[in-house]
Amino acid sequence: MVLYHGEELKFIPACNNVQHKDFFYDDALWIQTPDQRSLPYMMFVGGFPDEWCVGLKYLPKDELNQLLSDNPKNHGLAAAINKTLRRPEALCNLGYIMAPKSLVEVQHKRNAIRYAYREQPDNEQDSGWRVFHGDESDEYINSPNNIGIYHYSTIVNIDFEIMRYLSLPVGTTIERRPYVWHDHEIRYGSFCINQGLYEMFHSIILDQGRQDLNDAAGNLSIENFESAYHIALPEQYKKWLCFSDGGELFHPVDVQLYGVAHEPIIDVHDSDRPDDSYIVIGRLASGDTIVFKNGQEQISIFNIEGNRIEKDEIYDNFYTFLKDLNNLVGD
Length: 331
Prior knowledge:
Elements: E1 2-4, E2 7-12, E3 28-30, E4 43-44, E5 52-55, H1 61-70, H2 75-86, E6 96-100, H3 101-105, E7 115-118, E8 126-132, H4 138-141, E9 147-150, H5 152-158, E10 173-176, E11 185-188, E12 191-194, H6 195-205, E13 212-213, H7 219-229, H8 235-241, E14 247-249, E15 255-257, E16 278-283, E17 289-293, E18 299-303, E19 308-315, H9 318-329
Parallel strand pairs: 6-8
Antiparallel strand pairs: 1-2, 2-3, 3-5, 4-5, 6-9, 7-8, 7-10, 10-12, 11-12, 13-14, 14-15, 15-16, 16-17, 17-18, 18-19
Helix pairs in contact: 1-2, 6-9
């Protein structure tokens, strides 16, 4: 048991945390009694009364440090907290969020944030997140005087539900549309999230027990890797790296993807490719490699024995490749 704000919660590490699929890869503190639901940063993840927990990656640094102080002999918890502090996608490492000042100054009764997206950050302190209430005029938004830069805790205090989405990678767009359903969007909580990310996270990553994924790579790590080797990774593969910097998928079939900061790292000189214009980013159990042409979005499978790429193994982008791979070996 772990002491959290004077209450005893059950600490379940990521490797054992199968109580709810959204937290399968997260270290979390779970409630023991219904009255603990009111504790800070508590999140509802399932059915009443016990599926409420605090995910460590959602806690600010002062809360994590307080946990360490309150539980000095819990070495498992200490290891999980230290791991969280190193995770680029953890909220304690999140940069600032841009939002219209009216969102922060006006106390909306509910659903304060109705639209948000994450773009490439402007600098190291910027998270890339832009959040809005949704009723701001273009004239208001286009005035720099009406836009503020806020710590993520300020935004979370305005609309707590946004917290669970802030670790999603660059390219994410979410929108609150409680009564409207769009073909290109999937409902995720009370938000809608773009189809590609939904499929990526839910069809593959949350397939319990069949993946062995590395922690995320930060945008800076990706940029440094590209700069060091004078290459341009596919944009959609970079979004994947922002969630998982390589690893193995679909045990026991075992499809390996390479990263930029965690082993196995992309070897830009790997010879198992059609020619020097291609880069190897992964390998199938057959030994065939997953490649892309430098600076392009297409992903292909290179048949090493036949020294060729089949036409039906060329994909428009990484999501298309991942989706097809999931259909082939994911069942």
